[in-house]
Amino acid sequence: MDDPLLDYARRLEEADLALARSAAEIDGLRREVAELRARASHDEALLARLPAAREAAAEAVRAAEAELGRRMDEVEAAEHELALAEAERRQDEERVAAARRAVVRTRDAAATAEARLDRARLSREELERDAERAAEEAPQLERQAQALAEEVSRLPRVSAQAGAAPAPGLAGAVAWTARAEAALFVARSGLDAERERVAREANELGASALGEYLGATSVSLVRERLERR
Asked: Whole-model pTM?
């Protein structure tokens, strides 16, 4: 014998499951859009500041090279002074000691300058590698934005503006992700509200059929209680 209340509970359960599937789909798209936004924003900013960053990196290398040159001149001068002092050692032991300390000091300073130059060159190389990667990655990110826009446009709960194709370039991809994230958030919030409504309706149905308020957060639990009735 058909049970209208149980049939209704099953329909509510089906509606809740459908809403859950839609929510999971939106959550997946939100993760993809957020990842795309992070990558595209990073690459767009890198490429935008690249000319200034290149000049700064080149200037750092030039400054480090100049400093190393000065330090090497100081080392040469200190070593020359030590050689002279050692040649006259019998006359001035204190001068020899001071010259040796100067050689150690200038060599340490030169080693520090050389390490600074190595870091400046490495930083410049890393900048160029990052720039090359960003330039190569840009078309891929633009295609990904186009593909995601097509997926978003098929969602019934998302505005047409969010599903519209992104403008060309990384800037267009970044701008689209901002619109898409906002639209997907609104759509997800709407699904949550609908699931709450369905759960509330299921609990009211359970209270009517069983004479007690179940307070269940899952519509399936209400249906199960009605089946065991």
From this structure: 0.75
